[in-house]
Amino acid sequence: MASWAVIKRLYECTSVDPDFARDLASDTRTVLERIRVDIEADEAMELIGKMSIADRSENPYFGIYLPKAKRIGEETDSRLERDKYVSRDMYEVGRITRNRMCVENRLIRLHNNIRYFPIVFELARGCSVGCPFCGFDAPGLSGLFRYTDENAALWKGVLHAAKEIIGEAAVTGACYFATEPFDNPDYELFIKDYHDILGHIPQTTTAVAERDPGRLKAFISSMEKSEQENAAIRISIRTKEQFYKIMSEFSPEELEETELLPNNPESVNRYSLSGRARQDGADGVGYSISCLAGLRVNMTEKSIVYEEPEIPCDDFPTGERIYDKVFFTDERSFKEAANRLMGECASAEIKNDDMLLLSHGVSVKTDGNKAVFTGDASELTMTGDNMFIKSVSMLTQNGISLTEIGDRLGVSGFVLEMIRGKMQMIHKGGYLRRIPEKYFKIS
Ligand code: SF4
Question: Is the pTM higher than 0.85?
Answer without folding.
Answer: yes
